[in-house]
Amino acid sequence: MPVGGNEALPRMPQLRLDELLEELQARIDAARGTRDRVHSLLEAVLSVGRELDLTQVLRRIAEAAAVLVDAEYGALGVIGPDGRILSQFLTVGLTQDEIAAIGPFPAGHGILGELIHHPKPLRLTDLSAHPSSYGFPAHHPPMRSFLGVPIRVREEVFGNLYLTDKRGGHDFDAEDEAVITTLSMAAGVAIDNARLYEEAQRRQRWLEANAEITSNLLSGHARGDVLELIGLRAQEITNAAVADISVPVAGADELMVELAIGGRAEARRGLVVPVKGTLSGAAYQAGTPVTTACMADDTRFTAGPRRVAGIGAAVAVPLGTAAAEARGVLLLGRAAGEPVFTDEEIGPLLGFAAQAALALELAERRRDAEQLALLEDRDRIARDLHDLAIQRLFATGMTLQSAARLIENTGAAERVTRAVGDLDDTIKIIRSTIFGLRARDTDAAPTLRARAARAVGEAAAALGFPPRLSLEGLLDTDVAPQVADHVMAVLSEALSNAARHAHATRVEVTLKATGKEIALTVSDNGVGIPEQGRRSGLNNLADRARSLDGALRIENPPDGGSRLIWTAPLVAGA
Questions:
Q1: Where are the extended beta strands (E) located within 452-516?
Q2: Complete DSSP assignment for 268-287
């Protein structure tokens, strides 16, 4: 037998032993890898469970999932209230520049929508080969392998975990799926805890805000101050970018923005929008909250001017318990990309809106009481003027008239006669003043004085301060009704222009009736009227003046601002 054959016999057991040792080492390494992975999973579960801020919890879940299965990219999509699209989308592995280049986050179609409609784990070797794949948008990095797992909170699907491109070019396996499924169960508990904590915190803040508002109401704070407090607190608690409170316009199917916070608030304050075709109008008509996932894209609300660019989710809540009792609307809007308003958030808003309605009602009651006291004081003044001043002036006039007959000097007699005439004119002015004092704003045909005072008072909300008003002459007796209607139209337009374009801090209105004409002057200390600006409104005012044989004059005072002077005869065609 050859020598070489004898040498090979002892090597056979040695080779078998090496194979067994290698297999043992592989199993040890596998066990160690499993141990390390279980340890990493436990660490991830503990890390996720420590957080109570919901946004941070969601981000930690996405980051932990990507690390556990060694994925290059990860994302967590939160399903919106409608159960069809994603309301939030948090990514891992993409830079801010890459996110900006890709554009808006996905809404939940294609592969992402597959998990929404069929909430069960999904593993793909090549996601582009799936029938539901839509491809990638421009500037999106290429992705191949895919693992998706739903996240359930109390048996309801909250969202989905999406993982792509396992490092090393490998595919996701059953063990990866098991690990992420385990993480998703722990994530559901963590999300539930964070939501409960967030809800408790939110309720506490609502209670504190309600107490603050009630204290302000009982302390007699002004209506505007209380409304501003309501808007601020609602904006802060709901994390809204803008908050508006709109009130109905008397005699018109429109709403006026009385309070605006956030964004370009000055541009929105005083804005008039139609009830039909707007988010605020829908809530006002229905008497119930109305929400939208994106104001810019919602085809239900296209009427009126666009309020703020970049606003996404929004909610409008009526200020009252029913459409017939609604005194206005509270509108809150979040920045584009922020979560939609949920039922858990809207519930406390209803109570908060009731506080706003109470503020409006108390302000109206306080104003009615002040008006009653003012009218009673006016009645006293009018009575005193009639019983004392007019009687004495009349007696003085009679005495002077009798004395004029006894004066032989012709010049002196004429002067006394003129003085009697002046006294007679003074008595007429006092009688007109008495008539104005006793006039009620609620009369079927309010006087020109009352109409002008009301228009100036209503303009204070749009301007942000009360204009100064001066009334002179026999406005309620000498001005023809047709002319008075033109005057009110011109006054409303002038005040509206001042509120929208002047950026003024002072507005003065003077309405004066002389012996032959009525003159309306509206001046402000704003930016003035540009020469090349739109003149359609001013042209309308000029046309009104010309139709009455009057005139319109625009002045730019040396100290800045503008002055509008509109004149017309007291009687149309006179």
A1: 468-472, 507-513
A2: HTT-EEESTTSHHHHHHHHS
Query: Tokens 């991830």 label which residue?
Result: 44
The secondary structure of 376-406 as a DSSP string is: HHHHHHHHHIIIIIIHHHHHHHHHHHHHHHH
Helices (H), 118-218: 174-218
- pLDDT score recorded for residue 46: 62
Residue with tokens 């309301």: 87
The domain of 251 spans 200-353
pLDDT tens digits, 368-387: 676 677 667 767 776 766 66
375: left (phi over 0), alpha (psi -120 to 50) or beta: alpha
CA distances from 516 to 124, 493, 568, 574 (A): 90, 24, 9, 9
Strands 146-153 and 551-555, bridge-based pairing: unpaired
Three-state secondary structure string covering 445-461 = CCCHHHHHHHHHHHHHH
Please count the structural domains in the chain. 3
236 assigned to some structural domain: yes
Count of CB atoms within 10 A of residue 431's CB?
16
Task: With respect to residue 358, please indicate whether it lies within any of the assigned structural domains.
Answer: no
pLDDT over 70 at 111, yes or no: yes
CA angle 300, 314, 53 (to 5 degrees): 150
CA distance 473 to 479: 10
